[in-house]
Write a structure and sequence with these properties.
By secondary structure, the protein is mainly beta. The protein has no helices and 8 strands. Strands 3-4-5-6 form a 4-stranded antiparallel β-sheet, with no helix packed on it. A two-stranded antiparallel ribbon has the order 1-2. A two-stranded antiparallel ribbon has the order 7-8.
Length: 79
């Protein structure tokens, strides 16, 4: 995960969230969700400081990006 200052292009931070990722990071409600192919969902706080909020392991393999609607997150796996 890389955070850049939009006005200058300055790198604010670069941190590893782990795993192989095909899905795009998804932003909702001040959080950024990273879903790895192995089903590990890492949630970080959106902002200028890297803050890992949660990590959950889900069954199945994931390549599709999460969809967010109506306060819910929808995930598509191989199962």
């Amino acid at each position: 995960a890389h955070c850049y200052r939009g006005t200058t292009g300055e790198l604010i931070y670069a941190e590893r969230v782990g795993g192989n990722h095909s899905a795009s990071p998804t932003h909702a409600d001040g959080r950024i969700y990273f879903l790895s192919e192995d089903g590990v969902c890492t949630v970080i706080k959106a902002g200028e400081q890297f803050e890992k909020l949660a990590e959950s392991r889900l069954p199945g393999r994931f390549q599709a990006s999460p969809a967010i609607s109506g306060g819910r997150i929808f995930l598509r796996s191989d199962t």
